[in-house]
Specification:
Number of domains: 1
CATH architecture: Roll
Number of helices: 6
CATH superfamily: Methylpurine-DNA glycosylase (MPG)
CATH topology: 3-methyladenine DNA Glycosylase, Chain A
Structural class: alpha+beta
Order of helices and strands: EEHEEEEEHHHHHEEEE
């Protein structure tokens, strides 16, 4: 049985984000998700973190989107479903990425959650990340090297290294293919998004090009990545930042 997370915490009461909130274009939803709280309840325990970085993928016209040219597949089926559900996919054959299905309606758009600021279950996050790093090291290094180095390396993981990237945060939060299709707004779901305790002003949000989509040509330069300015948990990138008011469609 998974451990339940109660929204009435010492820090205040959290409000579950309603279904209607997600029924908007990804470009509008992506900055609005900043500051929200992502919670995952599992049998191992609860992990939670504040969303500090997102990327928007604008559907069939967006060459970087999995739904580009309205390509429907078993993998992208949930993108055509109700907004507010989890679109989980694998990259490099070993990492999972967590996306929030956007709208409007059932237009196949999504927002990638790129980074979190961990707030709960940090020891569990560190254990998960350390275990995964150890397995990777054993699989890729000679026995004499992997026998001593993995644990020594992973014990030094800082809090910033736990969830600063889409693959990292899914490892730390225990998010994988089993979370595919879960509704973030469903009280019975183990995966939730709660509204920010305080709204962010546009001045607190930076934008820049999305990461790792060079194949998309001109679409790779669009400033559709959003992050909270100055937050140390944002994933590392050399991409220049721009003002939120200068977005291009």
């Amino acid at each position: 049985m998974r451990e339940p997370w109660h929204s009435d915490r010492q820090e205040g009461t959290y409000r579950l984000v309603p279904p209607s909130f997600y029924n908007r274009p990804a470009l509008e939803l992506a900055p609005c998700l900043l500051g929200s709280l992502l919670v995952h309840e599992t049998t191992e325990g609860i992990t939670a973190g504040i969303v500090v970085e997102t990327e928007a993928y604008a559907g069939p016209e967006d060459r970087a989107a999995h739904s580009f040219a309205d390509r429907r597949s078993e993998r992208t089926a949930i993108m055509y479903d109700t907004p507010g559900k989890a679109y989980i996919f694998a990259i490099y054959g070993m990492y999972w990425c967590c996306n929030v299905v956007a709208g409007p309606g059932r237009k196949p758009e999504a927002v990638l959650i790129r980074a979190l600021q961990p707030t709960e279950g940090i020891d569990l996050m560190r254990a998960r990340r350390s275990h995964r790093a150890q397995l990777h090291s054993i699989a890729t290094k000679p026995p004499e090297e992997s026998a001593s180095s993995p644990l020594a390396k992973t014990r030094t993981l800082s809090d910033q290294q736990l969830t600063s990237g889409p693959g990292r945060l899914c490892q730390a939060m225990g998010i994988d293919q089993q979370c595919y299709g879960l509704a973030f707004f469903d009280p019975a779901s183990p995966l939730h998004l709660y509204a920010p305790q305080e709204s962010l002003s546009s001045a607190a949000i930076a934008t820049g090009p999305r990461i790792g989509i060079a194949y998309a040509g001109a679409w790779a330069t669009k400033p559709w990545r959003f992050w909270i300015k100055g937050n140390p948990y944002v994933s590392a990138s050399k991409a220049p930042a721009s003002k939120l008011g200068h977005l291009s469609p």
